[in-house]
Design goal:
The complex is a heterotrimer of chains A (504), B (330) and C (93).
Chain A: H1 5-24, H2 34-59, E1 66-70, E2 79-83, H3 85-104, H4 106-112, H5 115-137, H6 141-160, H7 165-196, H8 201-214, H9 218-235, H10 245-251, H11 254-280, H12 282-287, H13 290-311, H14 315-335, H15 339-369, H16 387-401, H17 407-419, H18 425-451, H19 455-458, H20 469-487, H21 489-501
Antiparallel strand pairs in A: 1-2
Helix pairs in contact in A: 1-2, 1-5, 2-3, 2-5, 3-5, 3-11, 3-15, 3-20, 3-21, 5-6, 5-11, 6-7, 6-11, 7-8, 7-9, 7-10, 8-11, 9-11, 10-11, 10-14, 11-14, 11-15, 13-14, 13-18, 14-15, 14-18, 15-16, 15-17, 15-20, 15-21, 16-18, 16-20, 17-20
Chain B: H1 3-17, H2 24-31, H3 42-49, H4 54-95, H5 109-122, H6 127-135, H7 137-159, H8 196-218, H9 227-245, H10 247-253, H11 256-282, H12 303-327
Helix pairs in contact in B: 5-6, 6-7, 7-11, 7-12, 8-9, 9-10, 9-12, 11-12
Chain C: H1 2-21, H2 25-45, H3 49-73, H4 76-92
Helix pairs in contact in C: 1-2, 2-3
Classes of the chains: A mainly alpha (504), B mainly alpha (330), C mainly alpha (93).
């Protein structure tokens, strides 16, 4: 064992910490917002532990990734977790983003959800965090499925928490689509088990390589790959399957929108990455021609997501459709089917997980400044009422457009660099350029809307609203993270690339 | 070709040619607002009879036929998708390894160890219990967490919505006044006092059902069954009790507080004991949990207490969901 | 034995198709319940009694009870009854 004992146990400890926090929350007292504070503390501990894991793996001799057998039985018999640099970076990013979106929306959560419900809401948030961490670390395809189930139910319930007719409708739609996705994933897992006789990812990989080399069972293998990719694509809102997303993300409470858009989609996408790299391997993916399909769908999502966002007047729905476009970027990187492409996709996962919660949080702050109206016409000049939210929105919008210095630039430039080695370079560059222009077309008017105000608003002749300290802190942290990712992304990208190289 | 389709085609033809006869519906729509002649100004009369623009026609057409066309499209699309997926899966299944063949990829060293050494390693006579609660206990822990998540969601959406003092501070923010649509619905369960047959049968069968559930749970590591199926049996006893004697009777010993407390603590015991076992296993420390003799009631290490925990969670959750659906509270 | 297995499997497919075709929700739930019962018999024939017990308790028992409750909640059962009454009255007249 080359990592220290503490680092070795971190994946398990972080999953179990969030689970136990979820289990004891219902019996805790509901006064003084104790459940929410407990969630925040646990997420903070997980973030610190993941940070330590990154440090331990970074400074260890050589590139290492380790397996953690869950229980007394070794690999092909018991369950297993696996942690490397990439998983550690993602776990760190998830916990930070979730912590900041919970603290940033501390006030709006209290306004939207009554106290009795908030305790259950925290249970679901903790379960969501646990399932995201488990999806990141799991090395067993069935364990991943179990945590996908937890993720689905918790995600649908945190949409429905706001209890108005529109959110319930959106949640039901989301639930039905998600269950279709789960069903496809489960069918595919059964097929894969029947073909390989394993549920753990590495033994499965050797078996699949053997099958492809002998030319046996190619058709069932292709079908199961297509089914599992389709199932996870529905859950991660790849374009043709994404019509549930704007309702669910646009109508729920701000904290839910931030977490759903920034993190829950990414959990499923990361599972696809894991499937491609660790279970099937890039060569098999290329042989079965799945990379081209993913690439085409990604390009379509990039463009169509932005086109739909252009039509929106409601600011939250606009940001939600922009998520569809951003998911397209990730799939574009995945479709390049190279280590560089997948690293760029992972960088975009991180960038989007840090920027989207900021956009939703600040959009919530802005609409709170305009009497909770969400249309762009009603948000005129709200920048001057809630300057923190305004700054956050401007920074997020600049980042989404890919202006140098902001986080979005980092992932866009990495995707561009990655596509130079690919035969699909022209298509990829054209799609990136077109999508950036479209992004600007809807984010710039939104920025102009919040920045043009009447004299009264600019000079402060309006009702002062009190901006809570937690909101200021989390927006400040988000902006700092944004600039950090935008300016110093090269070391991070190198870290991710090392992680991707030892991922399989 | 049926009449509806003919009418639809006729309408479509009329719409395309433009100067064709107006359909009855369209006439009905233009005639609808009955305006008295002396209040009508001349320019309005003109505007009423001006040639319709293409966009207006499109809108009218969508209003008239949109739904039917959509439902036709929807149906054909869903049938096509279904047929394609069913066909694809059937072809796939026909190409899979033959059912029950001994050279199948699934008959490998994994299964071999489960069957040959399962009894000695886990101490469970029922190898399925050994597999799900010892070899792959992490998955089963996840499964009970799925149940817990479902129960919490239902409790949050159905129960907590209906308290009177539960209104959020900001009504405007939470979707205007449509949030009251989930207000407490009247209980749908009518209790008849003179239902002697049901009560008689219930008083006889409830003890038997409870006994059966306990047997299935406690013998989970010896015979087929275990926490999940035993818990489901126990929950039917609770449901029967509620139906025969009324929810108030059940409420005396099992209410929302007991439910939350019992399932949280059962899951916590599960998580902590299994967490200890996982932790020691991963760090190669002896866990010190005795396995006992195969076939005894007190054997198989943690499997018996875990089965009891799962049984408590399942029984409470299934009854709780039933009570929430029918009464609106546990 | 083989004939019984075939019969059960055919019944299973018929049930599955019938659930999606039937218009009356109450009938759909009842057909679904019988589907679960047959499925649990098939699990026994496939020598997995664990699954059979769970399928019988959850698939045929709890799920159907929850479906019935949901139907009653949305008033579907009442509506069907009314329709049947009207039809019977009309046939009497």
């Amino acid at each position: 064992m080359t990592v220290k004992t503490l680092a070795y146990n971190i994946p398990f400890i972080s999953i179990f910490l969030m689970m136990i926090a979820a289990i004891i929350t219902p019996v805790l007292p509901k006064r003084h917002r104790i459940p929410e504070k407990l969630s925040c503390i646990c997420l903070f501990i997980v973030a610190v532990l993941s940070g330590y894991l990154i440090y331990a793996l970074d400074t260890a001799n050589g590139d290492i990734a380790f397996n953690f057998p869950v229980g007394h039985y070794p690999a092909p018999w018991g369950n297993e977790l696996r942690a490397g640099l990439l998983e550690a970076v993602l776990a760190f990013c998830y916990s930070i983003a979730m912590l900041l979106s919970l603290t940033g929306n501390f006030q709006s959560t209290a306004e939207d959800i009554p106290e009795r419900r908030r305790s259950f809401y925290c249970v679901l948030m903790n379960l969501l965090a646990a399932s995201l961490l488990a999806l990141t670390y799991a090395n067993d395809i069935f364990t991943s499925y179990v945590f996908i189930e937890i993720n689905t139910i918790a995600a649908c319930s945190i949409v429905a928490v706001k209890n108005s007719a529109s959110t319930i409708r959106a949640a039901l739609r989301y639930l039905i689509m998600s269950l279709v996705g789960s069903g496809l994933v489960l069918i595919s897992i059964c097929l894969l088990y029947d073909l390989t006789g394993h549920l753990l990812m590495q033994p499965m990989h050797t078996k699949i390589i053997e099958l492809v080399k002998n030319g046996k069972y190619i058709f069932p293998l292709t079908v199961s790959l297509a089914l599992i990719t389709a199932g996870l694509a529905i859950k991660s809102a790849l374009y043709p399957f994404s019509f549930w997303l704007p309702d669910a993300h646009g109508s729920s409470t701000n904290a839910s929108s931030a977490v759903l858009s920034g993190l829950v989609l990414k959990g499923h996408i990361f599972l696809i990455i894991k499937l491609f790299l660790r279970v099937f391997g890039l060569d098999v993916i290329e042989a079965l021609r799945m990379d081209k399909v993913i690439f085409i769908l990604g390009v379509t999502a990039m463009i169509m997501g932005s086109v739909h966002a252009l039509k929106q007047l409601n600011i939250k729905r606009m940001i939600a459709w922009s998520s569809v476009a951003q998911v397209g970027y990730i799939f574009l990187g995945l479709g390049l089917n190279s280590v560089e492409g997948i690293s760029a996709a992972c960088l975009h996962i991180i960038v989007h997980a840090c920027v989207k919660p900021m956009l939703f949080t600040s959009a919530g702050g802005l609409s709170a400044a305009a009497d909770h109206l969400k249309s762009l016409h009603d948000l005129l000049g709200t920048f001057y009422i809630n300057k923190w939210a305004g700054l956050g929105f401007v920074a997020g919008a600049c980042s989404m457009m890919g202006i140098p210095g902001f986080a979005g630039f980092a992932s866009k430039i990495s995707l561009t660099m990655a596509s130079f080695d690919s035969p699909l370079i022209i298509w990829s560059l054209a799609a990136l350029a077109l999508s950036s222009v479209l992004n600007a077309l809807y984010y710039v008017p939104a920025m102009i809307a919040i920045l043009t105000g009447t004299d009264e608003k600019i000079h402060g002749v309006h009702e002062k609203i009190i901006i809570p300290l937690s909101f200021k802190i989390s927006i400040g942290m988000f902006i700092a993270l944004n600039f950090y990712l935008g300016l110093r992304f090269v070391p991070l990208l190198r870290l991710i690339m090392r992680g991707v190289n030892i991922f399989g | 070709m049926n009449d509806g389709l003919k009418k639809f085609l006729l309408d479509f033809y009329n719409w395309v040619t433009g100067n064709g006869a107006r359909t009855e519906n369209e006439d009905a729509m233009t005639e609808l607002p009955p305006v008295l002649p002396f209040t009508m100004e001349p320019d309005k009369i003109q505007s009423r009879f001006h040639e319709k623009t293409l966009q207006e026609r499109r809108k009218d057409w969508i209003n008239l036929h949109g739904l039917s066309v959509f439902s036709i499209l929807y149906r054909s699309f869903s049938i096509i998708t279904c047929v394609v997926i069913v066909g694809l899966l059937l072809i796939t299944v026909s190409e899979l390894p033959p059912f029950g063949d001994e050279n199948n990829p699934a008959n490998n060293e994994v299964i071999d160890r489960y069957i040959k050494l399962g009894g000695n390693e886990t101490g469970a006579q029922n190898i399925v219990a050994g597999m799900i609660l010892d070899y792959r206990a992490f998955d089963t822990f996840g499964e009970s967490a799925v149940l817990f998540t479902g129960a919490v969601s239902v409790l949050m959406i159905l129960s907590a919505a209906r308290r009177k003092n539960d209104e959020p501070k900001n009504k405007l923010h939470s979707g205007f006044n449509d949030r009251n649509f989930l207000k407490r619905a009247p209980p749908i369960h009518e209790l008849k006092d003179d239902d002697a047959i049901l009560r008689g049968v219930a008083s006889l069968s409830i003890p038997a059902i409870i006994l059966m559930g306990c047997v299935v749970i406690i013998n989970g590591h010896l015979t087929p069954g275990g926490g999940f199926s035993g818990g489901a049996v126990l929950s039917t006893a609770l449901i029967l009790c509620a139906n025969a004697y009324g929810f108030k009777k059940v409420h005396e010993f099992f209410n929302e507080r007991t439910y939350i407390f019992s399932s949280s603590s059962a899951l916590l015991i599960y998580a902590l004991s299994k967490g200890y076992s996982f932790f020691t296993g991963a760090n190669h420390i002896e866990s010190g949990i005795p396995i006992g003799t195969i076939g005894n009631i007190f054997s198989a290490g943690l499997i018996l207490p875990l089965n009891i925990c799962v049984g408590i969670i399942v029984a409470g959750t299934l009854y709780g969901v039933y009570a929430l659906f029918s009464e609106g509270e546990i | 034995m083989l004939i019984i297995e075939w019969l059960l499997l055919i019944f299973l497919i018929v049930c599955a198709v019938a659930v999606s075709i039937t218009k009356n929700l109450l009938n759909a739930v009842i057909i679904f319940m019988s589907y679960s019962l047959v499925m649990s018999v098939i699990w026994v024939l496939l020598r997995s009694p664990d699954l059979a017990i769970t399928e019988a308790a959850v698939g045929a028992g709890v799920t159907s009870v929850l479906f019935f409750l949901a139907l009653r909640r949305i008033g579907q059962m009442q509506r069907d009854n009314d329709k049947n009454k009207k039809i019977s009255e009309a046939s009497k007249n």
